[in-house]
Amino acid sequence: MADQNAASQEPTAEKPPEIKVQRPTFFIVLAIVNMLVVASVAFLLYKGRKKEEAQPKIDDVIAGEANAQKDEKVEDDQFVGTLIPMETFVVNLAGSRGNKVAKINLELEVDGPKVQEEIEKRKPQVRDIIIILLSSKTFEQVSVKEGKDSLREEIANTVNSFLTKGKIKRVYFTEFVYN
């Protein structure tokens, strides 16, 4: 055993070959080029994001349009056009079998004298359309505020669909009685 210990402590005649670590310049240059490419891609992404932030977003555009429409509506609300009174409408409400009747007076606000003349000439057509619309509504529809607002819009849109010289701006109910 002693011989084995002595033998293991003695330097061996054969030395393992030394491995020389070579750093080839090709890999160093490749690593530098890779870092430059990554840095330039990051820079381009940064500039693209800054450019996107500088452009107006769709929400900003929509909000701007909404504000412009509100401003126009405020101007329209302040200006009252020509009012055309219509005769009294007495109609049976739908689904009531003649038990529910509505009596309605209304006025049409128009934006000019040409429309007023056209409505005066076509008054029978306008009255017919309004009577048909009124008689198609149920008691439940006309007895609530939302139903009356919907009826106003429906009257204006339907009459505007065949007018050629202008439009009805608003419909005002001056009397609205139902039983």
3D shape? elongated
Give the total of beta strands: 4
Task: Please describe the biggest sheet, giving its number of strands, its sense, and whether it closes into a barrel.
Answer: 4 strands, antiparallel
Q: CATH homologous superfamily of the largest domain?
A: Band 7 domain
CATH topology of the largest domain: Tetrahydropterin Synthase, Chain A
What's the overall average pLDDT, rounded? 82
Please tell me how large the radius of gyration is.
Answer: 43 Å
Give the tally of structural domains: 2
The string of secondary-structure elements, in order, is HHHEEEHHHHE
Query: So what's the CATH class of the largest domain?
Result: Alpha Beta
Proportion of residues in β-strands: 15-25%
CATH A-level architecture of the largest domain: 2-Layer Sandwich
Helix content: 55-70%
